[in-house]
Design a protein that fits this description.
There is one protein chain. The chain is built from three helices and four strands; from the N terminus they run βαββααβ. The protein is 36% helix and 32% strand. By secondary structure, it is an alpha+beta fold. Strands 2-3-1-4 form a four-stranded antiparallel β-sheet, with helices on one face.
Length: 84
């Protein structure tokens, strides 16, 4: 299944900068199929898409995101995405 993970950051720019490299390393290090991701131009959050075997797997990957673990997300959505 194709997954879309959209997230928006809390207003804590110093803490976000401290964790950003861990966040990027985490996602790149997973070696996910069809991974694409990056921040929005205004740095308010970002978008990641990837292939997962199940909704549970996708949820677990997101739950282990360093931004999530550090409590730096104001909101997030994980949705199955049908690319046409």
């Amino acid at each position: 299944m194709r997954v879309s993970y959209v997230y928006f950051m809390t207003n804590e720019p110093e803490r976000v900068r401290e964790v950003a490299s861990q966040h990027a390393s985490y996602w790149h290090g997973l070696g996910l199929r069809e991974y694409l991701g990056g921040p929005f131009a205004d740095r308010s959050g970002g978008l990641i898409t990837f292939e997962a075997d199940s909704a549970e797997e996708a949820s677990e990957l997101v739950a282990n995101d360093p931004f999530v673990r550090a409590g730096l997300l104001e909101s997030r959505w994980v949705k199955e995405w049908h690319v046409e």
